Amino acid sequence: MFNRAERIKRYLRAEMYPSIFCVGCGIGNVLNNTLRAIDECRLDLDKVVFLSGIGCSSRLPGYIDADGLHTTHGRALTFATGVKLANSELTVIVFTGDGDCAGIGGNHFIHAARRNVDMTVIEINNYNYGMTGGQSSPTTPVSGLTTTTPYGCVEEPFDLAELAQGAGAPFVARWIPGYAYETIATIKKAILKKGFAFVEILIPCPTGYGKKNRIEEGKESWDWLKEMTILKGEYDRLSAEEKQRNRKIIIGELQNIEKKEFTQEWRKLVESLKGES
Ligand SMILES: Cc1ncc(C[n+]2csc(CCOP(=O)(O)OP(=O)(O)O)c2C)c(N)n1
Ligand code: SF4
């Protein structure tokens, strides 16, 4: 029998290491927590497919010893929809970045959430396009410095967890590094949820966003993320006035409701039409 650490190691493609990730990057942490959640779900990795678009975060499927599709920029959710429709027995997990998900892939994102195909989307938000040199993304904070906003970003960012809820996703959550147990438990719930489950993880990108905004060191960047977020439980206890004034990003499980899942509805429709022909 293997212990947990040995089992997690066996999920990885050893030949792919060392990884491409910079020192202090939060993407490896997301991989670790996802594999722990998969281990806790006791999933057969032969029945799991990992998909991604393009970006540093989208490199994750390559490190997992399972079937994966490293697709085109912004299109992972469309490929994931195809995989799930072709074989509904498969567990479908998508890794995507803020740029991949909400920039070039924004339209696919809102429609995938609305359509509610059973999949888990782990969106790794580092506030910039890390892979291509630190350009601004749809989540770059106001005043944030990037290579394309050298005097500070003047656009309001998307809150992708709110966007997912507004578009109809039945399961939505958000975490930051430092909440490992909570993140693992959330990813586990997301995987077991029958429907479109969206988990946003805010992470440090010391080479891109961190360098420009002088949040380069590991502890510094974790503190920065902690400072700008508030736990859902704490937020719920604020008065209406305090809630209005709140500018912090809410973390925790934000939505968990039941909705009809697309694949099942589609199969029912196909079965009913068979009787008519
Ligand atoms: C069609 C297309 N346009 C642009 C690019 C260049 N490109 C590659 S990755 C990327 C940004 C990725 O940003 P994000 O999803 O936030 O991932 P990160 O690298 O920050 O993890 C861009 C613009 C591309 N590969 N394909
Ligand atoms: S550029 Fe940023 S996101 Fe990409 S590997 Fe380096 S630290 Fe991570």
- The termini sit apart by 53 Å
Q: How confident overall, as mean pLDDT?
A: 96
CATH topology: Rossmann fold
Number of domains: 1
- Assign the CATH superfamily: Thiamin diphosphate (ThDP)-binding fold, Pyr/PP domains
What best-fitting shape do the alpha-carbon axes yield?
Answer: globular
Secondary-structure element sequence?
A: HHEEHEHHEEEHEHEHHEHHEH
Secondary structure category: alpha/beta
Helix content: 25-40%
- What Rg do the Cα atoms give? 19 Å
Write the SSE topology.
Elements: H1 4-10, H2 27-41, E1 48-52, E2 67-70, H3 76-86, E3 91-97, H4 98-102, H5 106-115, E4 119-125, E5 128-129, E6 135-136, H6 160-167, E7 171-175, H7 180-192, E8 196-202, H8 206-212, H9 218-227, E9 229-231, H10 232-236, H11 240-245, E10 249-256, H12 262-274
Parallel strand pairs: 1-2, 1-3, 3-4, 4-8, 7-8, 9-10
Antiparallel strand pairs: 5-6, 7-10
The structure holds thiamine diphosphate and iron/sulfur cluster.
Task: Give an overview of the whole structure.
- With 277 residues, the chain is an alpha/beta fold.
- The protein has one domain (4-274): Rossmann fold.
- It is built from 12 helices and 10 strands.
- The protein has helices at 4-10, 27-41, 76-86, 98-102, 106-115, 160-167, 180-192, 206-212, 218-227, 232-236, 240-245, 262-274; strands spanning 48-52, 67-70, 91-97, 119-125, 128-129, 135-136, 171-175, 196-202, 229-231, 249-256.
- Strands 2-1-3-4-8-7-10-9 form an 8-stranded mixed beta sheet, sandwiched between helices. The chain has a two-stranded antiparallel ribbon with strand order 5-6.
- Strand 5 (128-129) and strand 6 form a beta hairpin.
- The radius of gyration is 19 Å and the shape is globular.
